[in-house]
Write a structure and sequence with these properties.
Blueprint lengths: L1 H5 L2 H13 L4 H20 L9 H11 L5 H22 L8 H8 L4 H16 L7 H14 L3 H17 L7 H11 L9 H14 L1 H8 L6 H8 L1
Length: 234
């Protein structure tokens, strides 16, 4: 782990952890989570803040894995999130509200998928209390990656985390709305968009309520803007 930390950490996260965490192979995802948890533990022990540079993308990658089919992977995802929060606290010398994430792990072991999703959403709220908004786009790109590549519970968890984030911070991310709407639009080209379209619709509703003009102007191409459609109808 020390050797990895002494190399280009950014490249490691992007080329190895990111790709493997999004894999269709559950065993590969588990291995990636094991490596990620060990790397984050080393960062925490050595007081390295490298991981903070990837806060948004890591949260976006780990979020759906809290509902991975493998119980061990779900636990590892929570372990990684807890480590990430502690690293951020040390790097910023700030007070981090971690809550009792460890106690929520039991809910992720429940056989009920409803219980798993409910627990995952509780963890999301704890993580988001400490979320640096400058990492919003990185987070949304990672969620998009899950929408386009994953299936089942991981897609539902990603959708829940995205909606929870927008509900908490929709008013505060005006400058990112054009890019967020671009990301949402790009998801619509996915062949499995029917799995996550309800989440995209809900996300748009939240953004329109918070930033109507910016959202509408960004989401609709000029040729299909509400104004154009209205004029053509006349």
């Amino acid at each position: 782990m020390v050797v990895l930390l002494d190399t280009e950490t950014s490249g490691f996260f992007q080329n190895i952890v990111h790709r493997s965490m999004s894999s269709d192979n559950m065993w590969e995802r588990k291995r990636a989570l094991q490596i990620c948890s060990q790397l984050l533990a080393a960062c925490e022990e050595l007081r390295r803040g490298d991981a903070c540079k990837h806060f948004g993308s890591l949260v976006g990658l780990l979020a759906p894995l809290t509902c991975d089919p493998m119980p061990t992977s779900r636990q590892l995802a929570v372990t990684c999130l807890s480590s990430l929060l502690r690293i951020q606290a040390k790097a910023t010398n700030g007070g981090i509200e971690t809550g009792d994430i460890g106690s929520l792990c039991e809910g992720l072991n429940d056989c009920s998928t409803v219980c798993q999703l409910r627990t995952s959403s509780k963890i999301a709220r704890i993580v988001y209390r400490n979320f640096p908004l400058e990492h919003t786009i990185d987070f949304m790109m990672a969620i998009k990656d899950t929408f386009q590549k994953a299936k089942g519970m991981r897609v539902r968890a990603a959708g829940r985390w995205m909606i929870t984030f927008l509900q908490m911070y929709g008013e505060d991310i005006c400058r990112d709305v054009p890019l967020i709407t671009y990301i949402l639009r790009s998801c619509m080209s996915s062949p499995q968009r029917s799995m996550f379209t309800p989440f995209l619709s809900q996300a748009l509703v939240i953004l329109i309520r918070c930033h109507a003009d910016v959202t509408i102007n960004s989401f609709f191409p000029a040729a299909l803007s509400p104004q154009t459609v209205r004029h053509e109808g006349e």
